[in-house]
Amino acid sequence: MRRFECQLAYVLHTRPYRETSFLCEFFTADYGRISVVAKGVRRPKSRGRALLQPFIPLMISCVGRGSLLTLTDFDAVGVAPVLTGRCAVSAFYLNELLFRLIHHEDPNPDLFFCYQAALSELEKTTEVQIVLRLFEKSLLKMLGYELQLVKELRTGKPLNPEGNYRFDPASGPVLVETGDLAIGVKSQDVFKGKSLLALAAGVLNDIVVLGDLKRLMRLALAPHLGSKPLESRKLL
Q1: Which residues contact 111 (CB under 8 A, 6 or more apart)?
Q2: What's the pTM?
Q3: Which of 59, 110, 193, 221 has its CA 20 to 30 A from that of 137?
Q4: Is 226 left (phi over 0), alpha (psi -120 to 50) or beta?
């Protein structure tokens, strides 16, 4: 019997399970994503209805023999950030990325606290695009897919801020020469050097750069997300 005691966790996703229970996907600090049955929490008087919600920091304990565990105890250890409108949808987008991209019981404490910090930032800022781009960059790095953003792939030379670069998420930027766009290089895969350098430095304060980086991160995430569209992205 496996026991996970006193784990700091957030709910990523829930769905009804049998008549009175939830099947919960938790993101935990020590064990990564875990699947847990929360028995009886859908009963009218259960406190689980209010507590087992996204963005509330929880302390949970659970037991089990296989990959599906049973929740034995849970309580809030803080309050959810106050998120409305675009910030709320952005937070659900973070949850959907984690639900789709992290593996079961693959511990990643740095990613857990990065997610926690992003939720806090979404509560305080109106610049949600900055929060999302930096989280996406960190997520890819912490999953082992760090983007190469500062050197041209073929020459190894530093990027020219005014140059145009075709970006391959698996290898990095390649300078677009005069005439390349006429021979099959797709314009949606081309980005300004200053945009790539801004993401590398984590300094995103230019609307043109943010537009470039929204396209870039969609390109970078696509191989890992597969063909199924993200529901939260439709809302965004």
Answers
A1: 98, 102, 138, 139, 142, 143
A2: 0.92
A3: 59
A4: left
Give tens-digit pLDDT for 99-152.
999 999 999 999 999 999 999 999 998 899 999 999 999 999 999 999 999 999
Alpha-carbon torsion, ordered 129, 79, 14, 72, to 10 deg: 150
Least trusted range by pLDDT, from 59-63, 156-160, 207-211: 207-211
Q: The tokens of 159 are what? A: 């990027």
Largest Cα separation within the chain, whole Å, is 68
Task: Choose among 150, 149, 175: nearest CA to 163.
Answer: 175
pLDDT in tens, 182-204: 445 667 789 999 999 999 999 99
